[in-house]
Write a structure and sequence with these properties.
mainly alpha; 2 domains; two-stranded parallel sheet; 2 strands; binds zinc ion; Fatty_acid_hydroxylase; membrane; Sterol desaturase family protein; transmembrane helix; Sterol_Desaturase_Related
């Protein structure tokens, strides 16, 4: 806790630096954990990728700073000025609203990601903003936050803006951030952790896991979504799952043994 008479600018600076530190720690903890699991279940998958992983970590640390700065400022404004629609009292809204608020935020994030991501694949924007992320060929669990700073900025502002618009309990915001972290890492780690029964199920047809995002990194011009296949299907940009990953699992796209 900062002393009450800390100048606002200094307080914002400190809170932003601390939040950026947390984002960086979260990155190391989550990407490191799944890299360790990868080494156990797919030994050698990241062999020879030391240079790529070093690059991914450097971009991700810059991204952590860009993500942490607005998040820290908004957190301070919530704490000191009561701004935002964040709440802590579970009875402030009906209980059904708790999961609903998570879904609203995930859908908003997915929508923003789909359209900004698709725009970044325009050749002019791609070179400037998005080539860094696609430099990882194929991606690893360390690719999750490997973005050019301008791309990071497009992602970093969404949640801080969203909490001003969508009422959300602080614990549910924690759920949203956990989903974002886990899916961001596992969608890049090069193998499918979800059971085949889920990936090849009607629900799996609408959600994005590693098998789907890997295809984006193979083919570029398709599979732009983040969590759901809704926009990809609606806009005709869904090209199904990565053949390599489906073959690895021994099952065809429809879940039939191959
Ligand atoms: Zn990616
Ligand atoms: Zn892309």
């Amino acid at each position: 806790m900062l002393p009450a008479d800390t100048p606002v600018l200094l307080a914002l600076l400190i809170v932003s630096a601390v939040t950026s530190g947390f984002v960086a720690l979260r990155y190391f903890a989550s990407s490191g954990l799944f890299a360790w699991i990868t080494q156990r279940v797919r030994p050698g998958l990241y062999d020879g990728k030391e240079r790529q992983i070093g690059r991914e970590i450097r971009w991700s640390l810059i991204a952590a700073f860009i993500y942490g700065t607005p998040a820290g400022m908004v957190f301070w404004a919530w704490n000191h000025l009561g701004w935002t629609q964040l709440y802590t009292d579970f009875s402030a809204y009906p209980l059904w609203y708790l999961p609903a608020s998570v879904l609203i935020c995930l859908f908003a994030q997915d929508t923003w990601f789909y359209w900004s991501h698709r725009a970044m694949h325009h050749p002019k924007l791609f070179r400037v903003m998005h080539a860094v992320h696609h430099d990882s060929r194929p991606p690893t669990s360390w690719t999750a936050m490997s973005f050019h700073p301008i791309e990071s900025l497009t992602g970093a502002l969404l949640i801080p803006v969203l909490v001003f618009v969508v009422p959300i309990h602080i614990a549910m915001l924690g759920v949203v951030l956990t989903v974002a972290t886990v899916m961001g890492v596992t969608n890049h780690m090069g193998w499918e952790m979800f059971p085949r029964a889920l990936v090849h199920s009607p629900l799996g047809n609408w959600m994005i896991t590693a098998s789907h995002h890997e295809k984006h990194h193979e083919r570029y011009g398709c599979n732009f979504g983040l969590y759901f296949r809704f926009w990809d299907r609606l806009c005709g940009t869904d090209r199904g799952l990565s053949k390599r990953m489906v073959e690895q699992s021994g099952y065809g796209e429809k879940g039939v043994r191959i």
